[in-house]
Design goal:
Number of helices: 10
Helix content: 40-55%
Shape: globular
CATH superfamily: NAD(P)-binding Rossmann-like Domain
Radius of gyration: 19 Å
Strand content: 5-15%
Strand order of the largest sheet: 3-2-1-4-5-6-7
Length: about 270
């Protein structure tokens, strides 16, 4: 169902890879709500995914860009403003990568060159994106910038590895840069801490299937899907949330406030009694 919440609004969506990704679902929902946008991803990621299908479906332009490169980002933002016909109203940063996770290195045995690369892609890129937007004065007043996070930024999930540190840094950048964007430009900056979601990136974490089942049993409303997250993101892009900024917003079916649930206790007791 469409409500016209983003009619006439313009933006950039980072990170749409395939139909399982939150960025992909968000792009579809932005289109349904009347918004227009540029799609962007790293050239190597674009070769792995099916972003051209999304662009065709939504009438979006694709501009490849390495989000860790200031030069690429400067071109991306200036070209997006030109293509879309004006300043931006929303930006979604949906980027995350850990080489240590991909290569099976434990948190206690990191290869630090890989750690730095993962941090730059997952967190440092968010600062770079906002710095370029800020300096180019590319955002309209009351625009909204959103990045996707995860609760491992606050709590220990051993196999999430150095991505937990990256997400903590991401949330800190959102608060710190969000202050200046709010004070100087009346632009909102928030992060969404989403349920474990079976995206291409999420499935790369060891034990993911078991944990997603655990989170489903723990959360009173169950896990939030990629589409659920897209809908929540739309609300943050809309004019209905103009005074929401500097927040890390948990979108996880209630998981973040749970100690234990009946379903988890029952499963544990059944296992103990076998």
């Amino acid at each position: 169902m469409s409500y016209g919440l983003l009619k006439g609004k313009r933006g950039i969506i980072f990170g749409a890879l395939d139909e399982n990704s939150i960025a992909w679902k968000t792009a579809e929902r932005v289109h349904e709500e009347g918004g227009s946008f540029v799609l962007t991803n790293a050239p190597i990621a674009m070769r792995m995914g099916t972003i051209n299908q999304l662009a065709e479906k939504t009438g979006a332009t694709i501009i490849p860009a390495d989000a860790t490169s200031l030069e690429d980002l400067e071109k991306l933002v200036s070209q997006s403003v030109e293509i879309l016909g004006g300043k931006l109203d929303f930006v979604l940063h949906s980027i995350g990568m850990s080489v240590n996770v991909r290569k099976g290195r434990l948190y206690t045995d990191q290869k630090y060159d890989w750690t730095v690369k993962g941090w730059d892609v997952s967190a440092g890129s968010f600062h770079k994106v906002m710095q370029v937007l800020y300096k180019q004065e590319a955002m309209n007043e009351w625009g909204s910038i959103v990045a996707l996070s995860y609760m491992a930024a606050q709590r220990v999930f051993p196999d999430y590895n150095d991505m937990a540190d990256n997400k903590a840094f991401l949330e800190s950048i959102a608060r710190s840069f969000g202050y200046f964007f709010g004070r100087d430009k009346n632009v909102r900056v928030n992060t969404i801490s989403q349920s474990p979601t079976p995206t291409t990136a999420g499935k790369g974490v060891k034990g993911f299937d078991g944990f997603i089942s655990y989170a489903e049993k723990m959360s009173p409303l169950g896990n939030a899907t990629a589409l659920d997250c897209a809908n929540y993101t739309i609300s943050l892009f809309s004019d209905l949330t103009q005074k929401v900024t500097l927040q890390n917003l948990f979108h996880d079916g209630g998981f973040s406030n749970m100690g234990v649930s009946d379903a988890v206790l029952q499963a544990f007791e059944e296992q103990q009694n076998k």
